[in-house]
Amino acid sequence: MTTPPLDGIRILDLSRVLAGPWAAQYLADLGCEVIKVERAGTGDDARAYGPPYVKDADGNDTSENFFHLSCNRGKKSLTVDIAQPEGQQIVKRLAGTCDVLVENFKVGNLAKYGLDYDSLHKEFPRLVYCSVTGFGQTGPYRLRPGYDAIFQGMSGLMSVTGIAEGEPGAGPMKVGPSITDIICGLNAVIAVVSALYARDVKGAPGQQLDLALFDTAVAAMSHYAQIYLSSGVAPFRRGTQGNGGVPSQMFYTKDGALMLTAGNSAQYCRLCEAIGRPEMARHPLYEDARTRIANRSGLSAWLQEHFLTDTTAHWLDALEKGGVPSGPIYDFEEVFADPHMVSRGLKVTVEHPFNPAVDLIGSPLRMSETPVATPKAPPLVGEHTTALLDELGYDALTQQDFRARGVI
């Protein structure tokens, strides 16, 4: 087989900004036909986030910004005003042709348009209906709005991220990217694929999938949250230090910095050999995992002093030859120039209506028998409206009337 694994599955994407669109983008990578429904006139809210913008062939800014490019590759765009009855009917007709609907409206908001789960499930019982919200469909906070940064704070993520207490700049810190949205989007993909399997293989009906950013953020705390549940003591911020094997942190060098992790005693011994200090592997304060954890600060201080004696390139070469997990601290120019990254194809160049060569982040999924879909540029606002309405049986005069009245 050479077709993508979910070829033949159709997705109706009513979501905006990041978590929902991220999920739908991964489904497009897996071969789904994804129809993105956007607000007539302005499109997805994320289209207003910018700069930077895509450059045209002459180097001038266009209307297409970085945020939209990051989470909408491979989709089709249909513009509809769902506040108008005709707009609601268009979406319902489309829903009848789709396997999955993805939405991230506030709880209950789609009911007034007849596009909520209960309404559509009665008419299309096989439709998998994926709802992505801040706090979920149930619970005392279900009606609250929310963004990624709120959930980074409420989940405990910020409490364990940042410089350690007592050091300059200490305090809770937000992770740079909107990581809660991204993980929630991936959770949504897992839920969608599972629901399709349950429907198509086990004979289950379509169902509603209730994905919450808050739930996602708490679950993603993983072993950090388990420390608290197991001991009653909350973990604390360690800066760049890991929470497992020691040493595991960033060290400054003569001309930069590097990250290394010696996750067990064998790796710690190799570390000592690699940096020319084999006797430190037998030091009574650092000879096993327990002593290294108990004396973490002293070990870190000694290693930091040692790494300052030479360059990043020198140490990374020595650590790689010694089999010690380590790597540089890259900026994005260095990320996309890295030969391994290039070989893995994580940057792709696609043809865009405004520019024949636009660079995008590629899919990280690698499948030997059913490869992911060839990447395509994110759509312009309403780029596929006419074609999709033609498919649904709306004639040219009706579409002209819809445009005049702002339905599409």
Automatic annotation (TrEMBL):
Any Pfam family: CoA_transf_3
Gene3D superfamilies named among the record's database cross-references: Crotonobetainyl-coa:carnitine coa-transferase, domain 1, formyl-coa transferase, domain 3
GO MF term set: CoA-transferase activity
Domain of life per record: Bacteria
InterPro entries noted in UniProt: CoA-transferase_III_domain, CoA-Trfase_fam_III, CoA-Trfase_III_dom3_sf, CoA-Trfase_III_dom_1_sf
Record's keyword terms, sorted: Transferase
Protein name: Crotonobetainyl-CoA:carnitine CoA-transferase CaiB
